[in-house]
Design a protein that fits this description.
The chain is an all-alpha fold. The chain is built from 4 helices and no strands.
Length: about 110
């Protein structure tokens, strides 16, 4: 029975770890999607007038803010994979508060 508890706790920890990292990824994906579409709608319209006003609109505060946030989301999503693999590996090895079988279950023996 002790082995089943260890497996169940490990599986729960793995699922929680993946859920925690996926929330961060979903947040930045939504930010990227929203800012890209808002920039295209407000700052780079697909019309002749939009073509002529786009150099002026790039200097507008709302366009600069949307562009900055879009660039930040791109950089964050680029580095996300390295960060998430490192974090998950740290969780599995116990370095970042993951399950450490020797110390956690040694008390029960």
């Amino acid at each position: 029975m002790m082995t089943m508890e260890i497996i169940a706790n490990s599986f729960t920890g793995i699922i929680q770890t993946f859920w925690d990292t996926s929330k961060i990824y979903m947040f930045w994906t939504v930010i990227h999607f929203a800012t890209t579409n808002l920039y295209a709608h407000f700052c780079a319209k697909m019309t002749a007038w939009g073509f002529f006003t786009s150099p002026l609109m790039t200097q507008a505060p709302h366009c600069k803010g949307l562009n900055w946030l879009r660039d930040l989301s791109i950089k964050t999503l680029d580095s996300y994979w390295v960060w998430s693999v490192t974090w998950i590996a740290g969780k599995f090895t116990g370095i970042l508060g993951g399950i450490n079988f020797e110390t956690k279950y040694q008390k029960d023996v």
